[in-house]
Amino acid sequence: MVTCLDWIDHLNWEVIVIEDKFKKAACFAGGGKIIVYTGLLDHFSTDAEVATVIAHEVGHVIARHSIEMIKIFTLCFPTRLLVTPLLQRHELEADYIGMLLLAAAGFDPHAAPLLFEKLERIKGQSVLTKLLCFFQLKAHPSRRRRAWLLSQPKVMEEAMKLYREATSDDGPDKA
């Protein structure tokens, strides 16, 4: 059976770790390449935290966010005011897809909201920075909001169902 996601199987997936103080990760359109900087990894202590970051970036690839942005820039010359809400939606969508992937891979999905809470503490903002951010348009929603959204009962129940299937003795691959 052919599905709309068959193209994912043909990507040359690769996670590249770059030694640098940056505290971020990124993915690239079309190729399945994910970059994680050691500055981000220095703050993680569990496989589930690292898996959450990678799953989030895979979520961007699956949702074809880069391709969507290329189409928008090809069709028009959007302003930051028009693009920012779309970028924020992309981040939230990648969070959701990433958490479901995390759960389906057998990692406890509670790791996802906990990761964003941890990132909030790591990259904490001063009162002045928060005030200035109020006046500028941010591409990423607040980490606190992202953690809250992933913790919502309906979202967590969906992820926990995948997690239980992945970790049960008669999981999807055992049938």
Automatic annotation (TrEMBL):
<dbReference type="GO" id="GO:0006508">
    <property type="term" value="P:proteolysis"/>
</dbReference>
<protein>
    <recommendedName>
        <fullName>Peptidase M48 domain-containing protein</fullName>
    </recommendedName>
</protein>
<feature type="domain" description="Peptidase M48">
    <location>
        <begin position="10"/>
        <end position="72"/>
    </location>
</feature>
<keyword id="KW-0482">Metalloprotease</keyword>
<keyword id="KW-0378">Hydrolase</keyword>
<keyword id="KW-0479">Metal-binding</keyword>
<keyword id="KW-0862">Zinc</keyword>
<dbReference type="InterPro" id="IPR051156">
    <property type="entry name" value="Mito/Outer_Membr_Metalloprot"/>
</dbReference>
<comment type="similarity">
    <text>Belongs to the peptidase M48 family.</text>
</comment>
<dbReference type="GO" id="GO:0004222">
    <property type="term" value="F:metalloendopeptidase activity"/>
</dbReference>
<dbReference type="InterPro" id="IPR001915">
    <property type="entry name" value="Peptidase_M48"/>
</dbReference>
<keyword id="KW-0645">Protease</keyword>
<dbReference type="GO" id="GO:0046872">
    <property type="term" value="F:metal ion binding"/>
</dbReference>
<dbReference type="Pfam" id="PF01435">
    <property type="entry name" value="Peptidase_M48"/>
</dbReference>
